[in-house]
Amino acid sequence: xxxxxxxxxxxxxxxxxxxxxxxxxxxxxxxxxxxxxxxxxxxxxxxxxxxxxxxxxxxxxxxxxxxxxxxxxxxxxxxxxxxxxxxxxxxxxxxxxxxxxxxxxxxxxxxxxxxxxxxxxxxxxxxxxxxxxxxxxxxxxx
Amino acid sequence: xxxxxxxxxxxxxxxxxxxxxxxxxxxxxxxxxxxxxxxxxxxxxxxxxxxxxxxxxxxxxxxxxxxxxxxxxxxxxxxxxxxxxxxxxxxxxxxxxxxxxxxxxxxxxxxxxxxx
Lengths: 142, 116
Known about the structure:
heterodimer, A: mainly alpha, 7 helices, globular, B: mainly alpha, 6 helices
């Protein structure tokens, strides 16, 4: 889906609330994804996936950094995440369905920490944005 | 769901004004339908051992009369989880979310079960 000018404005506004907490949000979203969708753990056999894992924390930071890049280059997410897209296509090859699971868990985390900020309109724009990121990351798969 | 996934409005021509988020939020038919859907969910929670039977007729209805793609049950289930998260915040722990994801999944499955 194309991000409209309104979507971009809404995401920038929401991100002001997220900024400063994005590492923790990334960590929590991953934890929730591993708990709710245990099949996603199959991509991390090399991780300690216990609660409080330093590896999950570190990975949450990476995920958050990528989202920040996307927000900061929202007019060209594909350009901003091009190397990450290559990595996912050539090396990681995470099945596309899993980006939906992580995006959903990220929405849940935002809902928990900023319930009043997540109006239906903001929810819609954020969902579109997260879908766009997932699409970019899987764009070079075939 | 009607706002976040606007294509789901296709099933609700009879609901009148769904032209904007404000219209949807204020629409009395939407509110009434939300009540119906959540009450039905309540029935599911009371009959977890027997979901397919509990939803048998409803499943047939959604297939034969309403013609709803079961993918929509998944969409609504995820929206419900997010609404619960916003409502219960910290109490909606990862374990709680995981269980609810399973619940919305089995409800969606039961609703799709009689499709043919």
